[in-house]
Records
---
Amino acid sequence: MKITVLTLIVFLVPSLYQNSHAEEHGAMPDCSKMPPNFSISYLDENADGAISLAEYLQGDSTHQKKTFEHMDANHDGVLDMAEQKEIEQVYKLLHEQHATGSHKT
């Protein structure tokens, strides 16, 4: 029984977090136009594996410092690989919700 509960927690909690986190981005630009394999790595101008605020802002004129600060979960001033993967998962979830028509309006 303990293994079942632990397994459920391990797999359910990240999924719930991604769902709730994705809903926070409902007011962000239309993610439906992004491919399901969307990646933000193209913003990494110097190819050091991290996206700085300057790289983020230069990458798209719609990008805002406030959004970057929200995505920078550990507040170290860069979007490291773990944060980039999380962001990509959120966009993927939004894309899937749009594709299935299950997104909130």
---
Amino acid sequence: MEYIYAALMLHELKRKVEASDLEQVLRAAGAEPDQARIKQLVSAISNVNLDELISQAAVMPVAPAAAPAESKVEEKKEEKKKEEGKEEEEAALAGLGALFG
């Protein structure tokens, strides 16, 4: 994967993707370049329009976060507590009315 990243970085810097440049980038990143892989990559992308390829790359959809689902559960719990609290208040008020009525 680091070979692809190095080639994309050279392309982004508007430099021609050549074996010597790829080797320099990989060495600078701390990798030990494999000459066979470098030659294979250079020959594979020599006839490819990288700008077009990058623009057509599919974007991976992001999975929805779990937090909203949890907040809905918490909201339902809060609603139940509020309803229970209202029922208790109504029962207490009804009991007080019996004292005076």
